[in-house]
Amino acid sequence: MTGEPYIPSTITVHLGAPDSNAENVTVSFPDYIKNVASSEIYPTWPESAIRANIYAQISFALNRIYTEWYRSRGYNFDITNNTAYDQAFVKDRSVFKNISEIVDDIFNDYVRREGYVEPYFTQYCSGRGTDCDGLKQWGTVDLAEQGLTPLEILRHYYGDDIEIVEDAPVMVNMPSYPGRVIREGDAGPAVLQIQQRLARISANYPGIPRIPNPDGVFGAETTDAVRKFQEVFGLTPDGIVGKATWYRIAYIYTSVKRLAELSGEGIRVSELSQQYPSVLAPGAEGSYVRILQYYLDVISQFYNTVPPVESTGVYDSQTTDAVIAFQKTYGLPTDGIVGRNTWEDIQRAYRGIVDSNVFTQEGLPLFEQTVRIGSTGLVVEQVQEYLNGISPFYQGIPTLETDGVFGPATEQAVVAFQTQTGLPPSGVVNEVTWNELVSAYYDLRFSGELQSGQYPGAPLQQEDQ
Length: 465
Hints:
Layout: E1 7-8, E2 10-14, E3 24-28, H1 29-40, H2 47-66, E4 79-80, H3 97-106, E5 110-113, E6 124-125, E7 135-136, H4 137-145, H5 150-158, E8 162-165, E9 170-171, H6 189-204, H7 220-232, H8 243-257, H9 269-273, H10 287-300, H11 317-329, H12 340-355, H13 364-367, H14 378-390, H15 408-420, H16 431-447, H17 458-464
Parallel strand pairs: 1-9, 2-4, 6-7
Antiparallel strand pairs: 2-3, 5-8
Helix pairs in contact: 1-3, 2-3, 2-4, 2-5, 6-8, 10-12, 14-16
């Protein structure tokens, strides 16, 4: 799971130790909590004690799901019923009426630390015959009888910075892996998550190069970091994030952040706010809207049901119309809003076009080549020629020698262009920057500001033929 936590509609429980050959059962999340609570505590306890324990049980389970504790290691379940690892769960057992009623009231509430995102790892034990650093179940009875509220009981054991999140949304539990290989040239929330997690992992594993400015665009720096991660952890070092690499990154990230420990580092709200928005909707602005518009514009060239889109960085009516047309084509709800399903289908459609190699000459083969300091060849010449064409109209873009060598001067010109057009100023020309550069050049050309023959650039020569 990524982003803000939600309550999964179901949870899959392994009826044994993680590596045992035991049955998996999938039940609704409320039914799971009712079963656990009925298996671990007594219905005759004071209500405040019962509620405190149920909050802890909910949060424990959500932490396992949020961190993909088992699924990131290749297991096909969310949690076990083995109390050496997780919580008690007895298949098909009956539940206590008052416990069932309390769970129905609070099953979509959970515990977290103030200022942090993930459900807190609410470790607990019985407190009779066993001891632990977290909540003592029998101790909650004494505290409730002293008049403490459920939140006060939880703070007694976990600290004064504990809070209860109420009425979290209920959603179908979806694996964080987006279902497709992610590689250089891709962009979006999955890429940003990879970059941010690798940046944190590199603090513990300095051999993995740190990505300086995670921007959601999979460029050469991200490829280098992924490849080194794969080398360190025994994966095929191809620089491509498939399912195995995705979940290995997830597992190592959880480990270095200690998200499944009482004293874990945690994910701060400020970290989450830097991530790609989970939804893009009319009125949104910024570089990710440009990415969306770029994808839609490419798709429009091969799907006559989808209208072309101008790259403005503003989610305007033309973008909304294109999104609705795409959603209709793909059988999605036609709300004009780009949530996860729409985003993933847009990326799949775009990637299918790219992989089919249908573009020749002036199209995507060049756009798909990410260029940066040290790059050489025709693709760099094209970048330099476009920059020269627009330099009289953009501050800080110098006239470049079109030598096909991506040096500091070319990088400076690219950064200046990106800064003025609202793109991440990385100095790297990826598909989004390229699209914006070409659009800027031809906007000037067709407006009459840029005259044919103003400079001997290859794009003009190709168009004039």
